[in-house]
Design brief:
Rossmann fold; alpha/beta; four-stranded antiparallel sheet; Arc Repressor Mutant, subunit A
């Protein structure tokens, strides 16, 4: 799955955006400043950089410039600075896209996927036992046929795929799928969505082969 480095000095944005991106199938690391970001880029390969202009130390322009000299990692600027100078400066430094805050989460995901496609860094389709999730097209395929899921069902399935083989408690699932706007999914709603998801992907609801209940602990996908 694509690995994203989020460089942002607002810890609340880091927390919310990281949770949201993970439910969309991305691996996310975070850095709050210029030095930390460059250190992580030197140690880890990333498929995309989400970069704020204003940082705890230094600025996003310096990070973008250094990254473009070091790697071929695409860069999307996230910033409250909507002035023409900031846009032009970022693009002149090699940024691949630019989206001002506040942004709509779905628009950000669309921009990320567009940049990944354009730069040849799209992720492979996630697959398990005849069930496949194409996170670029946001499609779920089972045995060659598309399964149509709601947005929350899709996000829930991605959480299971991204944690395949691990037991996920109800608390963990609730934490992973809460809406980035702050509207939390409650326990009863989680039960409903797990049932709806199973109805769509399982052949035998009495003996599910994908989303399995681990008594007293939670649920898991796979062995």
């Amino acid at each position: 799955m694509p690995r994203i480095l989020l460089v942002e000095d607002d810890k609340q944005i880091i927390e919310n955006l990281t949770a949201f991106l993970r439910t969309e199938g991305f691996t996310v690391d975070a850095a709050t400043g210029q030095q930390a970001a460059l250190a992580q880029i030197g140690q880890q390969s990333y498929d995309l950089l989400l970069l704020d202009i204003s940082l705890a130390d230094g600025n996003g322009f310096a990070v973008c410039s250094a990254v473009k000299q070091m790697t071929d990692c695409p860069v999307i600027f996230l910033t409250a600075s909507g002035d023409e100078y900031s846009v032009v400066t970022g693009l002149d430094l090699g940024a691949d896209d630019y989206i001002p805050k506040p942004f709509r989460p779905r628009e950000l995901i669309s921009r990320i996927r567009s940049v990944l496609r354009r730069t040849g860094k799209t992720q492979p389709v996630l697959e398990y036992d005849g069930l496949a999730v194409d996170t670029v097209k946001a499609q779920v395929i089972k045995n060659g046929s598309e399964i149509f899921l709601s947005a929350l069902e899709y996000r829930l399935l991605l959480v299971f795929f991204n944690n395949r083989g691990a037991v996920l408690s109800r608390e963990k699932l609730l934490m992973e799928i809460w809406d980035i706007a702050g509207e939390y999914v409650n326990d009863n709603t989680l039960t409903v969505y797990i049932k709806r998801l199973r109805d769509k992907i399982e052949d035998d609801l009495q003996n599910p082969r994908y989303i399995r209940t681990v008594r007293g602990l939670g649920y898991k996908l796979g062995e």
